[in-house]
């Protein structure tokens, strides 16, 4: 696992991946548009609740001016490093996801994280994600079915898959990696069946050389996430599922820095004898609510 020098002698820095994630979010998300008509009563309630929680912490822990100034300096640096998406997705998103999917009966989901990019190349129901010549990592063949909660296969369901390479880097957020490397879309037919070939990603360390890394070091935490595959599964008339899948025995399954592991998301891979691994894991989507 390397954290600095990468392909073509280019350096993968926290600021580069952070600023790429910030750019992408600012340009593609309609998050602000979606809440622009939120009534002032709601904004007032949420803003006051968050501020109350901060005030309460300051009183209870008798926060000093030095600590207040350290916070101010750190928040400024989070912005400079473009790490607001990273910070929020690592330490906040998991609770938003929990609340948002509370009502579901189908497959469990988890957080999206900062490195999703829409529009990954379509591979059909059976295919491989784009890889480089000699892409490192254990070969993984993944089969499954996409169904509705009543068991009906979902014709036309699409699985978007994205994950880090064997060094823990994501295409489009680290230098020197082809644009769509280890990113693909798979659309199933009437039987709902897919077969995806990729590599098993490695355990992943969030960037340590930026503001989030400073917090982790200052607090004596660690920066690791377990190895994971990201997916978004969509089908007409159904709620989109955002999930991550994990591998049994990963030492960070129990202490993911992003708190995004759930037992239902741990795969049960079968070694194939030739060094490759096969796994069966399908998705059950909830019908969209009226
Ligand atoms: C990741 O790859 C990730 O999935 C999350 C949630 C945060 C940082 C990097
Ligand atoms: Fe990730």
UniProtKB/TrEMBL annotation:
Q: Tell me the cofactors it needs.
A: Fe(3+)
Which region ranges are annotated with the description Disordered?
103-133
Q: Which organism is it from?
A: Terrabacter terrigena
Transferase is among the record's keywords: no
Protein's name according to its UniProt entry: Catechol 1,2-dioxygenase
Which residues are in the Intradiol ring-cleavage dioxygenases domain? Answer: 111-287
Q: Which GO-annotated molecular functions does the record name?
A: catechol 1,2-dioxygenase activity
| Gene3D superfamilies referenced in this protein's UniProt entry, alphabetically | Aromatic compound dioxygenase, Catechol 1,2-dioxygenase multimerisation domain-like
* EC numbers for this chain: 1.13.11.1
């Amino acid at each position: 696992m390397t954290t600095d020098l990468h392909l073509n002698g280019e350096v993968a820095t926290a600021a580069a991946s952070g600023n790429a994630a910030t750019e992408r979010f600012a340009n593609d998300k309609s998050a602000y548009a979606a809440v622009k008509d939120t009534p002032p009563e709601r904004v007032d309630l949420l803003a006051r609740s968050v501020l109350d929680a901060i005030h309460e912490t300051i009183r209870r822990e008798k926060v000093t001016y030095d600590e207040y100034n350290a916070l101010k300096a750190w928040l400024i640096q989070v912005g400079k490093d473009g790490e607001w998406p990273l910070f929020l997705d690592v330490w906040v998103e998991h609770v938003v996801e929990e609340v948002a999917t509370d009502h579901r009966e189908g497959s469990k989901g988890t957080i999206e994280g900062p490195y999703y990019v829409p529009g990954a190349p379509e591979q059909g129901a059976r295919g491989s994600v784009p890889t480089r010549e000699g892409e490192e990592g254990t070969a993984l063949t993944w089969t499954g079915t996409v169904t509705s909660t009543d068991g009906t296969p979902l014709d036309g369901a699409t699985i978007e898959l994205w994950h880090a390479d064997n060094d823990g880097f994501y295409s489009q957020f680290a230098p020197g990696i082809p644009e769509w490397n280890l990113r693909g879309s798979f659309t199933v037919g009437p039987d709902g069946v897919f077969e995806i070939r990729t590599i098993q990603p490695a355990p992943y360390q969030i960037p340590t050389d930026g503001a989030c890394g400073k917090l982790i070091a200052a607090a004596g935490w660690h920066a690791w996430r377990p190895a994971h595959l990201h997916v978004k599964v969509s089908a007409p008339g159904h709620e989109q599922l955002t999930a991550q899948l994990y591998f049994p025995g990963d030492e960070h399954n129990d202490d993911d820095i992003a708190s995004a592991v759930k037992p239902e998301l741990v795969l049960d891979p079968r070694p194939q004898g030739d060094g490759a691994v096969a796994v069966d894991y399908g998705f059950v989507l909830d019908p969209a609510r009226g």
